[in-house]
From TrEMBL, chain B:
Belongs to the Mediator complex subunit 8 family. This is Mediator of RNA polymerase II transcription subunit 8. The keyword Cytoplasm does not apply. Keywords: Activator, Nucleus, Transcription, Transcription regulation. One of its GO terms (cellular component) is core mediator complex. Pfam families: Med8.
Length: 254, 255
């Protein structure tokens, strides 16, 4: 192993002393052998390819008009060759506070699919949304997600996270290029729920509307996608008004 | 001299053509009124007047053109009057005039208006001269006012018609303005999703205050009542002590 290390190191030295010493980091990375996961991660971070920003717009549509919206989306989107893609997810939001009751608690979300029980669960961090001004067409927020096994809830609880709230999302998913459009209904989980990790007995819908979300995951700096999103949002008017919604202002509302 | 004659000829030709057009349009209007009076409506009829007015304007333009000699300087004198049929005349005037006799001269070569018409004009002119300046001003103002009122009425009516046609497409609300913020708040902060813990199940903790209802917000709000987050509606009493490290033996709701 050491010999290997030595040979590779000498290869590096050759690189540095050669004429192409002024090469870009990417070229150097392409030529060097990546040793550890940390290296690959830092390499990815440096070259800005990790999609850790989410651009998104939200709106809602009444239950009575949801069919019309679905038809229109079927006409506009890509993934509707055969049937509509539905999803039925259970999302839980955990939070953990720093020492001394540090105010902004770290929020983590765990999402699992109720339709496909074998699929991995998704652990996601969502940062504070940046609403920006009129020149920014969409809301921008940090978003990092990863697939996990189904022990993630226990793991988080052991870490000290506390479950704040949970809900059920049932709806349809559409894709257009890089954009993902979800139309789903939020259900509140009632207390009389069975514990055997399966059926939820009684659910109440939160409102008589479906929530419509248009989102794109992209590395930071690709603001042009926001304009494409706005154009797409225009096509869904006047059925649904997709816009930037500042939920922090909603905190102080009634 | 020759140039003037040529100019004269040109002007006369132009005048003749314009007058012919005018004659045609008047004839068409009369025909319309006589034959199509059942299907005629006012806007269509007004088109005729518009046409005639346009033709009169072009006629006036020609006459007031610089190159046109002032026709009032010329006089038309009959050189020969015969009570006999003149075929040439009949041909030129399309059968309207057959003889150039003494009877027709006063009518066709008239320079002053007819005696009746002249009398009426004299009366009107006399009347107009008697009106003082102030009265005239007042009358003008009154007329302007009346016209203004009529204008407003017509405009309002038009707007009503137009807006009626536009609003028929309807404002079928397909989305609710109140639901959007509700839903967004629910999935971002859990507003409305935090279930109130049943009072029976809460043994150790303080009873949930009324603020724990739909107004419940996430931890950034501070501890409203110091109630630790629910471990799920299991009916188990969460401990009142706020610790971040949970006991290992706690039952997991998803097992």
């Amino acid at each position: 192993m050491n010999e290997m290390g030595v040979t590779t190191n000498s290869a590096f030295l050759c690189l540095f002393t050669s004429a192409s010493a002024f090469g870009s980091p990417i070229v150097q990375m392409a030529q060097q052998t990546v040793n550890t996961a940390i290296d690959s991660l830092s390499a990815a971070l440096k070259s800005n390819i990790i999609p850790n920003q989410e651009y998104f717009l939200q709106g809602s549509i009444l239950d009575s008009s949801v069919e019309v919206l679905l038809h229109r989306l079927r006409g506009l989107c890509d993934n509707v060759d055969t049937t509509l893609e539905t999803f039925h997810d259970h999302e839980m939001c955990f939070s953990i506070r720093g020492p001394n009751n540090a105010q902004p608690a770290l929020q983590l979300r765990v999402r699992r699919s109720l339709d496909h029980n074998g699929m991995p669960m998704q652990l996601r961090y969502i940062g504070q949304p940046e609403i920006g001004d009129k020149s920014r067409p969409t809301v921008l927020r940090n978003s990092i997600d990863i697939g996990t096994s189904n022990t993630v809830v226990e793991f988080l609880t052991e870490l000290g996270c506390r479950k704040d709230f949970e809900y059920l999302a049932k709806g349809y998913m559409f894709r257009k290029g890089r954009m993902k459009i979800t139309v789903f209904k939020v259900f509140k989980i009632d207390e009389t729920r069975k514990m055997s990790g399966g059926a939820f007995e009684s659910l109440t819908a939160l409102t008589h509307s479906y929530l419509v979300e248009l989102s794109v995951l992209a590395p930071s700096g690709q603001d042009a996608i926001a304009d494409d999103m706005r154009c797409f949002a225009e096509q869904l008017r006047p059925l649904v008004q997709l816009e930037k919604i500042d939920y922090k202002r909603l905190v102080h509302g009634p | 001299m020759q140039r003037e004659e040529k100019q004269q000829d040109a002007v006369l030709e132009a005048v003749i053509s314009r007058v012919n057009d005018l004659k045609t349009s008047i004839g068409a209007m009369i025909f319309k009124v006589e034959n199509e009076y059942e299907t005629l409506n006012w806007p269509n009829f007004l088109d005729n007047f518009a046409l005639i007015s346009g033709q009169l304007t072009s006629l006036t333009k020609i006459l007031s053109n610089e190159k046109a000699p002032a026709l009032r300087n010329f006089t038309v004198l009959p050189l020969m009057l015969k009570p006999d049929l003149d075929e040439n005349l009949a041909r030129v005037t399309e059968g309207r005039l057959t003889t150039f006799s003494h009877d027709i001269v006063p009518d066709y070569l008239r320079t002053k208006p007819e005696p009746d018409a002249e009398l009426k004009m004299m009366q009107l002119e006399h009347k107009a001269n008697c009106v003082t300046y102030e009265t005239a001003q007042k009358q003008v103002a009154a007329m302007n006012k009346v016209v203004g009122h009529v204008w407003d009425l017509v405009n309002k009516a038009r707007e009503e018609w137009e807006s009626e046609a536009g609003s028929r497409s309807g404002a079928a609300q397909t989305f609710s303005l109140t639901d959007t913020p509700l839903l967004v708040a629910a999935i971002s902060m859990g507003k409305g999703l935090k279930h109130t813990v049943a009072p029976g199940a809460m043994m150790g903790g303080p009873p949930p205050g009324p603020q724990r209802g739909p107004g419940a917000l996430g931890p950034p709000q501070g501890p409203p009542g110091g109630i630790p987050g629910q471990m799920g509606p299991m009916g188990k009493a969460p401990s009142a002590i706020k610790t971040n490290i949970k006991a290992a033996g706690q039952m997991h709701p998803y097992r």
